[in-house]
Specification:
The chain is 76% helix and 1% strand. The chain is an all-alpha fold. It has a single domain, classed as Up-down Bundle (Growth Hormone, Chain: A). The mean pLDDT is 88.
Length: 434
């Protein structure tokens, strides 16, 4: 019993078990918190809102664009707010932001259409900053990829579940304009539990810092200096992410119309069924990057799987013309879009910071790409209406999938080339731990 080797093995086992327990706790806390946030953001998209129009534009397009516009404004605000946020402020910040969002949904029910698009714009502003606060609890750790993959699984699965909740409320007789507020009430108590769990996550250990570098708040000068240092590669990432955000957002916000265009009946449970399959594939692929201890290998692997995901979108798009089943098409496109989308969240920025050892945090970089991603989505939505093609969302989505996949793949490829050359020309990009 007093054998030193046995004692050492026992201590190692205890350490592993504590690490696994902490990882499980962190994933559940982050997953649950962001999952609940979707209950305040997405249920309204199940409605059709065909009873009114505004300025000659379909009212659902007005509502979706209004919320996304608020979400976009939030991302630009978040570039500063999230980058500078201190750890002890995050949990309270999450609750305050979602409280404001729920109040906006109450106004959405109270204010008569067509003017209740304004509360939906206000709803998007606080919700857009929740992700950055949640990811702050997870970044800078040896297992960050697995933790953030669990977090990202929430917005894949929650998108479908939130729509299912909204559809069930409509089916139960709740009106379209009050349904979003009622859906928010469903998620209120679980939200409190999961945010409490977040507060119990300890900061990164000394070993985490050695592998991934310390994550610190950034001033405006530090943010600008970081961007200038890697401007060509980051610009390519911003543009690729912009295209992915546009496709992903159209697929999410206009899911009923796309399912209908595919000729697939869309009962409430179909959203959950399709997104569950997408979630499982994305988490498995992206979460596995944590096995690479070498930051450089993990970084370039993430770029490779991002290109592979967009290739999958292209194959699904071509196959649709050849008679691919509609359900399979939606799952393959979802998988192909979310692989690079989640890779940016889980690995690309995480390992870039670990490689460079610069003063930075993932929140800053995520809000940089998110801001321009949602700006692009708003621009596309408005442009569709201006040119008079707003009537067939399915055809629009189908037509832009292939081209966006090709261009996005080329952008990720150019990013790969830039950082590969940068690696050879400077010592700025070296692995934190060999």
């Amino acid at each position: 019993m007093n054998d030193p080797a046995h004692i050492l093995e026992t201590k190692k086992l205890a350490t592993r078990l504590r690490s696994l327990a902490l990882a499980a706790w962190s994933i559940v806390a982050a997953f649950g918190t962001y999952f609940c946030m979707y209950g305040y953001r997405k249920p309204f998209t199940v409605g059709t809102y065909t009873d009114v129009a505004l300025w000659g534009i379909g009212y659902k397009t007005v509502l979706v664009t209004s919320q996304v516009l608020g979400y976009m404004v939030s991302k630009f605000i978040g570039i500063k707010v999230i980058a500078e946020m201190r750890p002890e402020q995050r949990a309270v910040g999450i609750l305050v932001l979602i409280g404001v969002a729920q109040t906006s949904l109450l106004l959405f029910g109270l204010v008569p259409p067509p003017w209740n698009f304004i509360p939906l714009f206000l709803n998007g502003i606080p919700l857009g900053m929740v992700f950055g606060l949640v990811i702050g609890f997870l970044e800078g750790r040896r297992h960050t990829e697995a933790l953030v993959a669990g977090l990202c699984a929430s917005f894949i699965l929650a998108d479908g579940v939130a729509k299912s909740v909204g559809a069930e409320l409509l089916k139960g007789g709740v009106g379209e304009y009050w349904m979003p507020f009622c859906a928010g009430l469903v998620f209120a108590v679980p939200l409190l539990v999961f945010v409490w769990m977040l507060t119990k996550i300890p900061p990164p250990s000394a070993e985490d810092v050695a592998f991934r570098s310390e994550r610190l708040p950034m001033t405006g000068v530090e943010r600008w200096d970081f961007f200038k240092r890697y401007a060509p590669g980051l610009t390519a990432l911003v543009l690729a992410y912009l295209l992915i955000t546009i496709l992903r957002s159209i697929r999410a916000d206009f899911a009923p119309e796309i399912w209908k265009g595919l000729g697939v009946k869309n009962p409430p449970e179909i959203y959950t069924q399709s997104e569950t399959l997408v979630m499982l594939g994305v988490v498995l692929i992206n979460g596995s990057c944590f096995v690479f201890l070498d930051n450089r290998k993990a970084f370039f692997m993430a770029l490779a799987i991002s290109i592979g995901g967009l290739v999958l979108v292209g194959i699904a798009s071509i196959s649709l013309w050849a008679g691919l089943n509609g359900f399979v098409f939606m799952v393959l496109v979802g998988l192909g879009l979310y692989i690079p989308y989640v890779a940016v969240h889980t690995t690309i920025f995480e390992r870039l910071i670990a490689l460079s050892r610069d003063r930075a945090n993932v929140g800053y970089l995520m809000y940089l790409v998110d801001a321009f991603g949602y700006l692009g989505y708003v621009a596309v939505m408005l442009a569709r209406e201006v040119v008079g093609k707003g009537g067939n969302m399915f055809a629009f989505f189908r037509d832009i999938c292939l081209g966006s996949a090709v261009i996005g793949g080329l952008l990720f490829g150019s990013c790969w080339i830039y950082f590969a050359i940068r690696r050879q020309e400077t010592v700025a990009l070296e692995p934190a731990v060999a």
